[in-house]
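Ticket #4471: structure export looks truncated?
Reporter: QA, pipeline team
Priority: medium

Steps to reproduce: submit the single chain below to the structure queue and open the exported record.
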Amino acid sequence: MGANGRSSPACSTSGNWSAHDGIYPTPNSFQEIVPIFISAYTCEVYFIFENRTLGSVSMEKVNVLIVNQAVFTCNLLALVLREEPDIAVVGTVTAVDQAIELADKCDIMLVDAELPNDGALTLSLEVGRKRPHTHVLITGVEKAPKTILKYIEAGASGYILKEFSVEVLVEQIRAVPEGKAFAHPEMVAQLIERLSELADACADQEALQKGMETLSPREIEVLDLLSKDKTNAELAAELHIEVGTVKNHVHSILKKLGVANRRQAARLYEQEQEG
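Actual output as written to the record:
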């Protein structure tokens, strides 16, 4: 099936199938259509079109910067990508600081996962997250969900597994500017689970914020002292109130924040102050 639910002639060599069913401009002919990816966000199947004839179709070039500690690999990737009519290699660098300097000159930054000192993670944070017009693709990644999620959460727009071919890399480069986010089928469940966890965390943070807004000035004073490990007697002495009044304030705070004990309340308060 195609990405939009239409039947895909995966075994056909005819050229009458419209590329609008996938992610490409319509070429003149195709020799073979091979399903490759499932979208991490829509679970749609996308296709690589092999041996395509582009004819007079015009495409805007995607500017690519290659970041790899091996000069040979940089040169080899540049040589391959420059054969593609819709891709322009704007440079090759071997260090993180050089990549950051050139980040605004490229649409996509191909970053080697094995850069020293967590260089790929640094570029995901510094470029992928802070420069919305520059996308980071991590290349040569091991098929390890935790590692991949680390890069995605840091700001990377996608990844290329070690076993993937150059053809797959080219298709990823073309897809990213269109807002496509691809994941290996084995990663889809992991990504959905992580998105669910993040949604829960956001909901908890929103509930905490609402709870904090309902606290009275006196309760905030009490909560601040709770975060400093003060006992009820110490709280009473410092605030010049009765111990029983302190207990009432603490009970009210726990109820409003939806926590079970004063230690949890203090931890939430500290997180709120740090945020």
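Status: closed, not a bug. The export was complete when the record was re-opened. Leaving a note from the reviewer for reference: The first strand starts at residue 32 and ends at 39.
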